[in-house]
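Retro notes - structure team

What went well: the batch runner handled both jobs without manual restarts.
What didn't: labels got mixed up in the shared folder, which is why I'm recording both outputs here explicitly, each with its sequence directly above its tokens.

Job 1
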Amino acid sequence: MQPPPFDRRQWLAGAAALTGAALAPAAEVKTPKPFGFMLNTATIMGQKLSLTQQIDVAAKAGYDSFEPWIHDIEAFVSAGNKVEDAAKRLKDANLRVDSAIGFAQWIVDGEADRKKGLEQAKRDMDLVRRLGGIRIAAPPTGATDKAIKDLFEVADRYAELCKVGDKVGVVPQLEVWGFSKSLSRLGETALVAIESGHPSACVLADVYHLHKGGSGFGGLRVLGAGSVQVFHMNDYPANPPRDKITDADRVYPGDGVAPLVPMLRDLHQLGFRGMLSLELFNRTYWKQDALLVAKTGLAKMKAVVEKALSAKR
């Protein structure tokens, strides 16, 4: 039975106080370093590399982990290859797969469409598991053009997605999408994760999306240590303004105006020891050598991290 209609702002305010205690998944993977560094393949998507070429770029650039997109894994399989061969390549390169990017429509209102979305999620998760992965993004795909007002209903839907993940062995990370009319803000996303009641519930946040959706970065301070296990890293320029900025405007960490130093310091102090994943859609970078872009992005992430952890409040 669902709670009655509610004032969303009132509930979000109450959720913030609960987040630190309630959002703490049991299966948190930590790195021996303060943070691990992961390459999201959107960063080199414009170079149109194969899955194995992407793996080689991540390995040569010196990343700890690799975040592929489902469509690239599917293309690899469609070409007659076995996912397990790519998994071996990753293992040989000492690369983990802490996350992957999928777009199953688990959140949509229509029951039949939602069922199809869960079936798609299961297939996507199976590919990720066979690749050696442990998590997958769960953005509000299919609900970006309208707001789903009953966040408790969304929580039930996310719980069902988590149950699918339990069966496959892959954790779906509830992703904030700043441009969406559903789950555009960190508070909404945290409330859904909390109210799902599922022990593996977690949030996938992103510098650009927190800015785009208007959440800002202060809310990260009230999250529990295990509530964020992967964080998408990027930066944004002062212009265009927030209502006009797009994914393509993302720049390397440290090259924009995002408050990355205090943000990373807050993440570290709340106990985050997961992966910082470089996710960019910059068309200028897509025209450059993929390895150069990957190396540059990693160096800039490490520089910002070093500055954050050495900075004094």
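Job 2
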Amino acid sequence: MKSLSVRLRPDKLEYFIGQEHFFYDGSLFYNSIKNKTFKSAIFFGPSGTGKTTLARIIAKSVNSDFFEINASETGTKELKEVLGTAKDNFFSLREEITFLYVDEFHRWNKLQQDSLLKSLEEGAVKFIGSTTENPYFSINDAILSRVGRIYEFRKLSDSNLKTVLKRALSDTEFGLGNIKKSIDEDAVDLLSEISNGDLRYALDSLEFIFNNSNDDKITSKTVKEACQRAKGTFHKSEDYYNLLSALQKSVRGSDPDAAVFYLAKLIDGGCDLKSISRRILVMASEDVSLAYPMAITVVNSCVSAAEKVGFPEARIHLSQAVCLLASCPKSNKTYLAVDKALSDIQNKTIDEMPAHIMDSHYSGAKSLGRGKDYLYPHNFGGYVKQQYLPDNISDVKYYEPTDNGKEKFFKSYLEGLKKL
């Protein structure tokens, strides 16, 4: 027998729950389905949030041949067979477009992903790829460019989950309405919270409880027994972004104990490895930088090792990186420097760069004054005073080093050059 989450999967737009930030009556996304103008997209987000369900609803609404494949089970050979059929249909007298849905699209390598390019360009397929990983890291730029639209699926709210759970309890055809049991409101609330936005987990847990409990009334105690603990999730008041923020602020505050605690919370909560790694790499340059220049090298090695071995062992490398960063001297001056420079570029009218540092390695450059009077620092022992910034910002200071850690050396060196 199919599971409750499969039996209750909606097949019409009006029954779909969640993703209100882009899916609502009158939204561009909603209208594109109603008007049959939907083309291709990437669905990105955690499990149990409706990516597959919505893809199937879209395919049904546009009346196209529909192929659904899972990238973890299907290789290039099978994909090419689907695309061959799509091409035949498209270039036939019927000019039919095929709808292709690839679940776990990030599992395909670059070559496999690129197999789609020609069919996308020709218009033979409408494509949805779903992924639990950030598509900007896991999907080729060429695919992203041709697909164009990326929709981020968020965890369903407790209210969303309770709506569907109550529908499951009352539905006599596909749900649990024929089972002569009741459930406390508190138990429904608890199950919604424990499920942490994963509707599949919530429904299948509810079915497990109803099928196996000897009690006529389900209470919170039964829910706790069934679920044991929160489903590899964050507590609803300590979500993903708050924990990443707490991790970085603990590192910035040089508190390795707090930093490793929030790292552990992220790992225990099921945060994906790439998201943790990305934040740790950012911290190495944003918060430590030249106060300990080797930090980025060590951290990059730790992150690389973590991604090679995967969880659970990856926690060891991540902990090393986090404890190192929290224990380092701190400086954010290189980060502030580039932001200050970007602000000037975006908000001021800047003169041209000095002609003597322009490229002079082409025919006619000298006649334009390019490179004229340039002083080659190595001919002067490694440093010679000359202007590099445009005239109207020639005295601006973007990088202002601190006395922290190794950055004190760079500060001393740069100040020493001014005295030459």
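One thing worth noting from job 2: The CA atoms of residues 117 and 143 lie 7 Å apart.
We'll revisit the folder naming next retro.
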